[in-house]
Design a protein that fits this description.
heterodimer, A: 478 residues, mainly alpha, 20 helices, B: 937 residues, two-stranded antiparallel sheet, 39 helices, 72% helix
Chain lengths: 478, 937
């Protein structure tokens, strides 16, 4: 069977990351414990290289290759750039953390790179099969990363749960894909879209859609497919949590867009209803349950669930404005999530994980600067102006109102009010309560600098959000 | 040019907020000076713009910020803006001076001024915004900065709680306001005030008007402490008094009524507006005035009085009449002036005597006559005594309650309510004066009171002077300001016409005057009777603490959240799986809703064999589940499931799949047997009957849904891709067995990948098993030792001739595979099974002595062969893995085809044997080795 020579150039970043990941995997075998930093540096260099490649390939055109199963469009470029940047920061944050816990091993970085590759494939996928491949590459890397702390019982348990639930969700996703393939006779999203538009909403397609949604919702961590999120975020070491909770959300958003908008756009009325259900449940459960948490990683996990609810609101409005708002929200969420878990890394040190809320008591007395930075992040997550989180919420709400779903906007605002409560509680702990330990707070300088930059970015981009917003709108063809 | 000053006025305190923090290193006075200088410059800049505004201009300043979302950095200065900006900056300056002497040495003063300037900037932003979204941003900033100010004395628990309460209520209201503003922008098509204020009719006729109004009012009422959100204000009194004087007289709480004034042209006038706004205002007015009388805390009295006066202003705007709005604006000015001076006076008293309890503070006249005079003037103004400014706006208020057109026959309710509130206002004002300054001697004061430092009184003096000046000469002092502010409130622009109103002190004998007289007389009477009233109040009303209620509700919410968490996230994987599956079933069921399940295709005939097969499958699946605790039995049942599935493939004319399934089934069962060796024979019973019932239901639901789905799919016409392969298999791949041609030709690349993965997986498993030592039981659960005879003779004897036989079959299967059922994969599995049989029957040691096969090399050879076959086609200039074929004749077998795909298939064959045996033999070794070791010992 013959096939055309594909345009490899479009997939150059993927090929580069794959090549480097394999190279680093082999090289790491020959490195001693002392020179392990080479692995780290090469990994970071790979991300920078991929960033430059993707930047160079950026164009406003939409190009397909590999028999139309791979697409490079502005959305893909922007999301990939965000993924590199996010993972770069994750590794930067984690370096010291991993060292202090004896986890500074090649596997972490290689798995991280393979995960990045999986995300890139998901983002640029233009066929059901490519999406699935990317998803599995990412998921398998993450299962292994969670399980890396072999001696930790919570980590092992979390990895086990993650794997079993993830396998179930993947199976359902695949089941849904097979139904869609059965009806449309194609895996390629363009053909699927044309076939679906021709056939209208028939029963099997709807079933296929439902199972697809289960898979996507699981990946995003939307209620009621969110059960893994708190346990995994909590059980995994903070460095891994940082990884799992941030960049993969961008890939999941891309998957949502590819499947629903590019592939099943004609079924918008149907997936609108499902998304609505997922969004409201996520907003409700995420915000309410977060209140009861005493572990900050779990609290941030539920906060993340509620953010996903908001993100879904943007997509379900079904307009390019809404998609742009959703994408903006996803990127902003990643930035805030990095700061949130980065804060936990900043506070932790060897033998102390800083994952209890009470560990943050009286931080203002020990270090006013970091208390202030954390306050920025919490306000941003709560959606208080002028921080970036406000713009994210605003753009989504605007899209929802423009889609004539005023009641939905009101519901979202109501849950945001509830949500503000637990962010404020952390601020209260930091500012008004007495510290549990009186020693001055001395974080490592690199993490401290990174965290400060991260938190200030939340403020500065909040003051000048128009360029990021313009990028997102451009990516959606606005 | 002039309008360009507007952003500077806001930026001065905003960016300057750091200055006092830095200047504190130069001393406390320097810090205060820097703060005062910044607000002074801002005030000066503002004053240069005032003449233009009074002349009827509205200054606009616009800078694109986020045009995509309708957000511009648009600022506006009109009469209302000037009024508020003057109050914010003017009273701000006085508070800065006052605080310099009020704060003690231990208080971090730099931070105080920093927060204060931040708050000032936020307030200026609110009143100067042209864009509603921009205003909202500043609105939230006022909540945040006031949070910091109220919680300034963070060592005090009540300050912290008060700050949190205030932030929760006002912050929440802010989000409601956000929703309201989004709706307002949606309705009117713009967030610019100029547009919004000009589209009154569109807005009020819109079906979303009620929702918009309610949301916006929620924002305004929470901020202005209107009933039922009023309870945060008294608790915010834990703040230092300069903060109270600033936030709770002139600024923060006025933001809510400012919003009412700002949006008055767009929203007011409807019936809904009247009932919501005037109703809330009336209730708040009465409630606040009543409670103020019964507070023993000086600041508590002032707090409730503030609530009451804010209710009064709200009520005035609620009437929806132009005159009402004029009176409302006027009372905003007057209240700000007298309440700020009263708070400052209360602060002085607290500061110099050490307490704010009016049951202890008595007869202070003797100790601080100067302060007492000032406080008395301000209190008289609060009571609405003639010749003081409070009287003027109160008269206008009384007059307005008489001249409204609402409520029909019940229209008298408003004036009666207003008079009643007036009575209480007079009573608590008298109490403020008489209790504190006269009424005998002080009781147990912590400090001996005396006059405060000179400069602490200056701000109070200025404010009290204003009370008098406005009260006596209104036309010469406040008139232009009021006119321009009222005009912009009523019309949305400065230029429009205003109804006639008079600022004269004396209007002759009329009904409003009578109401004032009643209020003063009644108030005096109530004050005289206060002790009896206090007792009655204490008997009638249990002390109702809204804050405690709020806290309790928070506790309750946390409790609910905990219970919800316990329900959803108990850490049990089974629970999660249950939720996952149940949610999927619900979603599928909802997909079924409303559309017919069956498609157009008729259901096929069911013959007896198929039915029997289906029953066997179902039965064995059920028994597997039922007996899952007895592992060996469950495994046997599971193999039955596999067998029936293989037969099903035969039934549906897929012999290839059947063969593959059969051999894979065997390998899998052997694998499971090897693992079973290390596990107990029975697993413990873990589930309660209830749980089993639940899981049964869930399983039935999930299985049922899948069955329905299958039914739905099978009764619909579908296109099969089989036709393509059927048509091209022989011509393109040189074989008539489509399955095999797909494997080795059409999808040869995939197969190559799969084989490689198989090899890698096998090597991975071997690596993981190396060095692993597993203890194995010497007896079963019942204590019976294993059979002495490890390798039964009969099995060993039978197995030996089976090997060559199996090899022949394998070669046969492979060679004919291209045209008939068979192929490298199946052949490989058959060979592997035959080899495994040798291991099982005669032991690893015996087999390895006689057979020197390195399975790793075998696997590698297979993969390499497959890959090289593909490369071969390059040599002939074809793409990778292009196949060619020719026909040959062999004795016995007859004519057959030899395609290059056959070489590829050989590679597959070798790789499958190698990797299967790698895994199985190594797993088997784990136990056997140990056992033989034991026997040797």
């Amino acid at each position: 069977m013959n096939f055309e020579i594909p345009n490899f150039m479009l997939a150059m970043p993927e090929i580069f990351v794959l090549g480097m990941a394999c190279f680093i995997l082999i090289l790491d075998l020959f490195l001693s414990e002392r020179s392990r930093v080479v692995t780290y540096l090469l990994t970071q260099a790979t991300l920078v290289g991929a960033f430059l490649l993707s930047l160079g390939l950026y164009s406003s055109a939409r190009e397909l290759t590999f028999s139309d199963s791979f697409v490079l469009d502005p959305m893909a470029s922007v999301l990939k750039l965000a993924v590199y940047a996010a993972v770069f920061m994750v590794l930067l944050y984690s370096r010291r953390y991993l060292r202090e816990r004896g986890m500074f091993r090649g596997e972490f970085f290689v798995l991280g790179l393979f995960g990045v590759l999986g995300m890139m494939v998901m983002i640029s996928a233009h066929s059901l099969l490519t999406i699935y491949m990317g998803l599995e590459l990412l998921s398998l890397s993450m299962y292994a990363m969670v399980a890396m702390q072999r001696d930790s019982r919570v980590a092992a348990e979390a990895a086990m749960k993650y794997f079993i639930l993830g396998a179930m969700a993947s199976a359902m996703l695949l089941y849904g894909m097979s139904m869609i393939y059965g009806v449309t006779g194609s895996l390629e999203l363009g053909e699927v879209s044309a076939a679906v538009a021709g056939q209208g909403s028939q029963l099997i397609l709807i079933f296929g859609l439902v199972f697809l949604m289960v898979g996507v919702a699981f990946k995003l961590g939307a209620v009621p497919f969110h059960m893994w999120v708190p346990d995994v975020y909590h059980g995994a070491s903070t460095a891994v949590t940082l990884y799992i909770s941030t960049a993969p959300k961008l890939a999941a958003f891309a998957m949502l867009m590819r499947l629903l908008v590019d592939g099943l756009g004609a079924l918008q009325p149907q997936w609108h209803d499902i998304l609505l259900l997922l969004a409201i449940l996520s907003l409700g459960i995420g915000n309410v349950v977060a209140i009861a948490q005493t572990n900050i990683k779990r609290m941030l996990a539920y906060s993340g669930i509620s953010h996903v609810g908001f993100l879904l609101l943007g997509v379900l409005s079904g307009s390019p404005e809404g998609y742009a708002a959703g994408m903006f929200y996803a990127i902003v969420y990643v930035l805030m999530g990095l700061g949130g878990f980065g804060m936990v890394i900043l506070m932790s040190r060897a033998g102390f994980e800083a994952d209890q809320l009470e560990d943050y008591k009286g931080l203002n007395e020990r270090s006013p600067w970091f208390a202030l930075m954390m306050m920025f992040l919490m306000f941003s997550m709560a959606g208080v102006p002028p921080f970036i989180g406000f713009w994210a919420k605003l753009s989504v709400l605007q899209a929802v109102v423009d889609a004539n779903m005023v009641w939905l906007a009101a519901v979202a605002v109501l849950f945001s009010v509830i949500g503000a409560f637990y962010y404020l509680r952390l601020i209260k702990l930091m500012y008004f309560d007495g510290p549990l330990e009186l020693s001055p707070f001395r974080p490592s300088p690199d993490v401290a600098l990174l965290f400060s930059v991260n938190a200030l970015a939340v403020l500065l981009i909040g003051l000048f959000p128009s360029s990021l917003m313009a990028i997102c709108r451009q990516a959606m063809g606005l | 040019m002039n309008a360009a000053l507007l952003p500077i006025i806001i930026l001065l305190p905003l960016l300057g907020a750091l200055l006092p923090v830095l200047a504190i290193r130069l001393g406390r006075t320097a810090s205060a000076w820097s703060a005062a200088a910044l607000s002074g410059i801002a005030l000066g800049l503002l004053l240069t713009l005032v003449p233009q505004v009074f002349a009827g201009e509205t200054l606009l300043y616009r800078l694109d910020w986020l045009p995509a979302y309708g957000l511009n950095l648009a600022l506006r200065l009109d009469g209302l803006g000037v009024l508020f900006a003057l109050l914010i900056l003017g009273i701000g300056l006085l508070v800065i001076l006052y605080a310099r002497y009020y704060l003690s040495e231990h208080d971090p003063m730099g931070r105080f001024y920093g927060f204060l300037l931040l708050f000032m900037a936020a307030m200026l932003g609110v009143v100067l915004s042209e864009n509603l979204l921009l205003m909202l941003i500043f609105w939230e900033l006022t909540s945040l900065s006031s949070f910091l100010l109220i919680g300034y004395w963070k060592h005090r628990a009540d300050a912290r709680q008060g700050a949190r309460l205030a932030l929760t209520i006002t912050g929440g209201g802010g989000l409601a306001l956000l929703a309201g503003i989004l709706l307002l922008g949606h309705i009117s098509g713009s967030y610019e005030l100029s547009v919004v204020l000009a589209s009154t009719e569109t807005i009020q006729a819109h079906p979303l008007y009620p929702a918009t109004l309610v949301l916006i009012l929620l924002g305004a009422f929470t901020k202005s402490a209107q009933f039922p959100f009023h309870f945060w204000l008294p608790h915010a009194m834990a703040a230092p008094t300069p903060v109270s004087a600033y936030l709770h007289s002139a600024t923060m709480v006025k933001a809510g009524v400012f919003l009412l004034a700002r949006l008055f042209p767009a929203l007011a006038g409807s019936e809904l507006w009247f009932y919501l706004v005037a109703g809330t205002g009336m209730v708040t007015l009465l409630l606040g005035a009543y409670h103020a009388l019964f507070k023993h805390d000086l600041k508590g009295l002032l707090a409730y009085s503030t609530i009451s006066h804010l209710g009064l202003i709200t009520l005035l705007f609620g009437l929806g009449t132009p005159l009402g709005a004029v009176a409302g604006v006027f009372h905003i000015i007057n209240h700000a002036i007298f309440k700020a001076s009263l708070f400052m006076a209360a602060g002085i008293i607290d500061h110099e005597s050490g307490t704010r309890d009016m049951r202890k503070l008595n007869g202070l006249w003797r100790y601080m006559p100067h302060t007492a005079t000032l406080a008395m003037v301000a209190a008289a103004s609060m009571a609405g005594v003639p010749l003081f400014n409070g009287f003027l706006s109160k008269e206008m208020f009384f007059a307005e309650t008489l001249h409204h057109s609402w409520l029909g026959a019940w229209h008298w309710l408003l004036p009666v309510g207003a008079t009643l509130a007036g009575v209480f206002a007079v009573a608590y004002s008298i109490r403020f004066i008489h209790d504190v300054f006269f009424n005998g001697d002080p009781i147990d004061l912590p400090r001996t009171p005396h006059e405060p430092p000179r400069y602490m009184k200056v701000p109070v003096e200025i404010l009290v002077a204003l009370c008098l000046l406005v009260g006596i000469f209104p036309a010469w002092t406040v008139a232009p300001l009021l006119a321009s502010a009222a005009a912009s409130t009523v019309n949305g622009t400065v230029g429009g016409a205003l109804p006639h109103y008079s600022l004269a002190v004396w209007h002759g004998f009329n009904l409003p005057l009578l109401m004032s007289v009643i209020a003063i007389a009644g108030g005096a009477l109530i004050y005289v009777l206060r002790h009896q009233l206090f007792a009655l109040h204490a008997r009638l009303f249990r002390p109702f603490d809204a804050k405690a209620l709020f806290e309790r509700q928070l506790e309750q919410i946390i409790g609910y959240a905990r219970r919800l968490t316990a329900l959803l996230e108990n850490g049990s994987l089974q629970r999660y799986l249950m939720l996952l599956v149940a949610s999927a079933v619900v979603l599928v069921a909802s997909g079924l809703w409303g559309s017919p399940l069956s498609g157009p295709l008729p259901a096929g005939e069911v013959d007896a064999v198929t039915l029997a097969g289906a029953l066997a499958l179902a039965l064995s699946a059920i028994t597997t589940t039922l007996w899952h605790r007895r592992r060996l039995v469950a495994l046997i049942q599971l193999s039955v499931v596999g067998l029936v599935v293989s037969i099903a493939f035969v039934r549906f004319a897929a012999p290839d799949l059947a063969l593959t399934q059969l051999s894979v089934e065997m390998v899998t069962i052997i694998l499971l047997m090897l693992v079973l060796y290390f596990l107990p024979q029975q697993s413990p019973a873990e589930s309660s009957p209830l749980r089993i019932g639940r899981d049964l239901l869930l399983a039935v639901a999930a299985g049922g849904s899948v069955a329905l789905l299958a039914w739905g799919v099978l009764t619909r016409p579908y296109q099969t891709i089989g036709d393509y392969f059927m048509a091209n298999s022989l011509s393109g791949g040189g074989g008539s067995n489509v399955v095999n041609v797909i494997l080795v030709d059409f999808r040869g690349f995939d197969t190559l990948g799969e084989v490689t993965v198989l090899g890698i997986a096998a090597i991975g498993i071997v690596m993981m098993l190396s060095g692993l030592q597993l203890k194995m039981p010497t007896a079963d659960a019942a204590g019976r030792p294993w059979a002495r005879e490890r390798y039964p003779m009969i099995l060993a004897v039978i197995s030996r001739p089976l090997l060559p036989l199996a090899l022949v079959v394998a070669i046969y299967l492979m060679l004919r595979g291209h045209n008939m059922p068979g192929g490298g994969f199946i052949a490989g599995l058959v060979t592997a099974i035959a080899l495994i049989l040798q291991y099982v029957a005669s032991g690893i040691a015996w087999t390895q002595q006689r057979m020197h096969l390195d399975y790793i090399k075998l696997t590698a050879a297979g993969v390499l062969l497959a890959a090289l076959t593909g490369l071969g086609s390059w040599a002939f200039g074809y793409p990778y893995l292009t196949s060619s074929f020719g026909h040959f004749t062999l004795p016995l077998l007859g004519e057959f085809e030899l395609a290059t795909a056959m070489l590829f298939d050989l590679g597959v064959f070798l790789a499958v044997i190698g990797s299967t045996l790698l895994v199985l033999a190594n797993l088997g070794k784990l136990s056997v080795l140990k056992h033989t070791l034991k026997e040797e010992r």
